[in-house]
């Protein structure tokens, strides 16, 4: 299943020839208008490349030229072979420790080492920094805007729209047609693209007396009406796994984050839950800063992601991959995770709590992030859990006037996670309904309206998305969200020295990742295999019979779609019935071996 378009292999040597020759010829700096133009190559017809800006941005007034010596980083993402990816992706199961040999797979997916060496030897690349990815499907180019402008037969200018100043090519870049036929996306050519938005929101306990505040800051006790880690574990049946020693050990969960955070904020929580895994932070490109986070509660998203995982999978390793929040930071981070994963022999997965409405992302973002998530799933054998959003059926966060879903949750290789309101009876799950604000402010969402879900406008429904409830009167052949759901309200979070309640599908998403980590540890221990990818969950739902692997959420709505039996647009297949899901997956493995 893919976005509208066709993927096929490309001749690497020829592609880089065309890409690099003009760049090397235009290595000088200075005023862009005085730069020598590269000699046109008559062998290749150049056509305009639409970088995907909305019409109003492309027509915005020019307010100045970008100095020709301004550094610029772009990433060229090449299309991969569908057949090869499907072969590598297999049937959704893997063996721990059998990580993909990226060097070997690169020879199938992208340009060969030999061809790339010939390109470097023949033309040289001293005047631009080039970095070919391990899978040979990405090429990072670091150069100057003057050189890049000549390469693309344009120049870079500043425009301004509604008070926002941004850079972009003055006119559509001119690129040989056969490159456009073989390139997924070229990112970094503009900075108008909307940066991903986080999904979390928080509330402080109110009111607190001086004595309560002192206890709140110092201890691990939270008010009984707040949903803590033990409540969630009991509700979803994780306690039995813990008794057998299955606590996420041997599993790594990656957290892409785009805001600064203080590690001191999570240490009290980690101590309270007895976290024993490794927490590490890797910075990809520019480090996140307060300005790009656009939020006074900076760091809270990262804190909630870490704490939800640590509370439910206390032996899982957590790897935060952070970057400054820009339009293409997510694709860069996901690609880096893919490349680094070869060094980690654990079972691996991703929990992603950031996204934007489909209507708010440009085509190059869509293409780049889609390919990155597909690679993580099919090549790296990871489950990629992504928020479905917190604005109900209206992902654009505007008033109730436009149905929309969250990208990249809508990517067919992602597992979109919706939200529920969980009530516990102290020992387990008392009730669970669709998360929805009972008194929403119709003028602004602010991540409070409820569980995101609906129909994608970008992707067709994948063949594996089927089962009870999937085909319904609102179906139109498009990808349907979410896939699953979990608790998203009233969750205990330790932040800035005291306890808060956290809300959002960005709590439900790491809850699902942690739960699946525990399940996969148990599967690996008892069968030697683990599962990954969204298709696995739909197979499990169809094979669970009268004893379902998911708690079916049949009450509530997300301001447009109503919950009901089977799959629905508010909570997907439902929340995890962990013990039963483990049993069904075990039976599926036995069937695969027959």
TrEMBL record:
It holds the Pfam family Peptidase_S8. Residues 226-588 form the Peptidase S53 domain. SMART domains: Pro-kuma_activ (SM00944). One of its GO terms (biological process) is proteolysis. GO terms for molecular function: metal ion binding; serine-type endopeptidase activity; tripeptidyl-peptidase activity. It comes from the Bacteria. Keywords: Calcium, Hydrolase, Metal-binding, Protease, Serine protease, Zymogen. InterPro entries: Peptidase_S8/S53_dom (IPR000209), Peptidase_S8/S53_dom_sf (IPR036852), Peptidase_S8_Ser-AS (IPR023828), S53_propep (IPR015366), Sedolisin_dom (IPR030400), Tripeptidyl-peptidase_I (IPR050819). Signal peptide: none annotated. The keyword Oxidoreductase does not apply. Its cofactor is Ca(2+). This is Subtilase family protein. It comes from Thermosporothrix hazakensis. The lineage of its organism: Bacteria, Bacillati, Chloroflexota, Ktedonobacteria, Ktedonobacterales.
